[in-house]
Amino acid sequence: xxxxxxxxxxxxxxxxxxxxxxxxxxxxxxxxxxxxxxxxxxxxxxxxxxxxxxxxxxxxxxxxxxxxxxxxxxxxxxxxxxxxxxxxxxxxxxxxxxxxxxxxxxxxxxxxxxxxxxxxxxxxxxxxxxxxxxxxxxxxxxxxxxxxxxxxxxxxxxxxxxxxxxxxxxxxxxxxxxxxxxxxxxxxxxxxxxxxxxxxxxxxxxxxxxxxxxxxxxxxxxxxxxxxxxxxxxxxxxxxxxxxxxxxxxxxxxxxxxxxxxxxxxxxxxxxxxxxxxxxxxxxxxxxxxxxxxxxxxxxxxxxxxxxxxxxxxxxxxxxxxxxxxxxxxxxxxxxxxxxxxxxxxxxxxxxxxxxxxxxxxxxxxxxxxxxxxxxxxxxxxxxxxxxxxxxxxxxxxxxxxxxxxxxxxxxxxxxxxxxxxxxxxxxxxxxxxxxxxxxxxxxxxxxxxxxxxxx
Length: 456
Known about the structure:
Blueprint: H1 6-32, E1 35-37, H2 39-49, H3 51-72, E2 77-86, E3 93-96, E4 107-110, E5 116-129, H4 131-198, H5 204-239, E6 247-249, H6 253-259, H7 276-297, E7 302-315, E8 327-338, H8 346-412, H9 418-453
Parallel strand pairs: 1-6
Antiparallel strand pairs: 2-5, 3-4, 5-7, 7-8
Helix pairs in contact: 2-4, 3-4, 4-5, 4-7, 4-9, 5-9, 6-9, 7-8, 8-9
């Protein structure tokens, strides 16, 4: 055995402590180091880590297991039974005494059998014909298709939610940047106005007007900072990240909005069979049709077969595992045929209800088709309007900036009042927010149109 001296042990201990400290630091760094995402990267990340997406995957897996569960009911079923009985007080029977040479008319109490019994049996059951079994397999397949379509719908909804949340974070960031610049300019104007008033070259009202505007902008800035934190946490939640985790966005709002302007999307054909909502309502119709077939199948006979093999042993004491125990074998083969004859019109009522449910589903299918066509037209109109509003807001922002700049010069030269300057500034701030919101609208409306078209 190798012996270590105190110096070696101390060195080893220090090495282990250093390693653990380094590992802890690396883990802490990896947890605190912010993750960066473009919009597409955020969407792809969410499609794998979003909580609803994860459960949609589980629902699909559950549907596949349910299909096999249904199939298995029609396959051979083998069950084993083991039983043990100990008659603590055996039942007494009376037999005529004359059987044993006794007085006629009298009875002798006797006990039949032994008090302890053990038995073991294996039974094989096989379904031969059951109309509901075939329909059950078809229904399981339909349910798998529904689960696949539900997973697809979840993915589209998650994608749309990520786009909206990502845009809201960018909107909050841009708002903060603009408001900070506006606040700096207003503080500069206010300081100059106060100095002019102190030197007798201006009036107090001018400074007060600027103070009102500055207070309003300062409040908006505080609110935007709070909103940025909330929108960031909302994005993290949708992406499946801890809401407190630091996250950075690689895209900027202006470039993202420019990339989302695709007029060719307005010319895309609307294939209703590709729409996931139409697929789901079609699944419902298939399910209702199968339910009607199921009720009709209840009037058909059911045929099952079984065979079992068992062995029983009797004893006065528990010695069933000994080599002297005697076991008696038995086996049975049988066939069960169940023929529905009369149900007091109960089956007929269930069949009629299933027929009504199918008719309702067909009506819902027609309604959904009409609603989706209308939704497509509305999404196209909203997207085109968002693009037009974006261009208008961009032009208006340029005009508002020039108007505010001119009023700044006029105010400095004493040619414009503080009220006129404040009016121009308020108009500029409104134009700035409308421009930012118009970019977000372009992004969101494009996503809404793509969702209807089932484009990813």
